[in-house]
Write a structure and sequence with these properties.
77% of the residues lie in helices and 1% in strands. It is an all-alpha fold. It has a single domain, classed as Orthogonal Bundle (Farnesyl Diphosphate Synthase).
Length: 280
Amino acid sequence: MEYLDRRVGLVNDRLESLVEAVEPPELAAQLDHVALAGGKRVRPAVTVLACEAVGGVPADAVDFAVGIELVHNASLVIDDIIDRSAVRRGTPSAWEEFGYGPAIVASDGLLGEAFALFSRNERAMRIVAEAMVELGEGEATELVARPENEAEYMELARRKTGVLFRAAAELGAVAGGADAFTVESLGDYAERVGVAFQIRDDVLDATADADALGKPTGQDAEMDRPSLVQVTDLSPSAANDRARRESDRALSALSAADTDDVDAVDYLQDLAEFVVVRER
């Protein structure tokens, strides 16, 4: 784990320095509450590992990794407002801590800081902009058009979660100077990982202990929010099987990419296998 901890540490250090420099101090405190309250840092880890997998070095990808984490956190702030979820990562959610208005401002602040990091690279800007369009479409779809079958759910999961994972990997590959085919292959890998991650999230919401999970459980059923378990009536075990299928497809896409760093690829493989068994 030291290998991965060092890379996540680079992201955390850059994230802390960025938040500390935000003005005014009140906004900095709000961004600190959201972005530095913990989190698995899965997406930025994917960015750094993808960069290394194609021959880059971690420092090349840190700003993009921080940027994708900021975009992710901005989306969580809005998710918690929509869901009226008072807890995030074991602490009060942004709206619960600061109120609705400041929470929305914090989300905007996170996005602004993120795009400042992406702005030096046209390909990065395009990758993230496309991901955010799909993310917004996914969020809107969830609110107004509940999926009615597994295929519709899978498309929603791709938009809600898979596209940011895809962007994370593609950003890393771009930072590492990968060719277009490898950027696409790593994006396919990460999108599948993201969908598996979302399916496992649905299962944990239905089955896990809230204290162990660090956020309320049973939210999908309470909010009548579409999850794979709710939409299809699949058992948690069968839903986990769907997640494993996505994980297997992710590994297949990863194997097609032109990579040359064995350690980074090993960790990307481990991630695809971990997301379907995680307990948080």
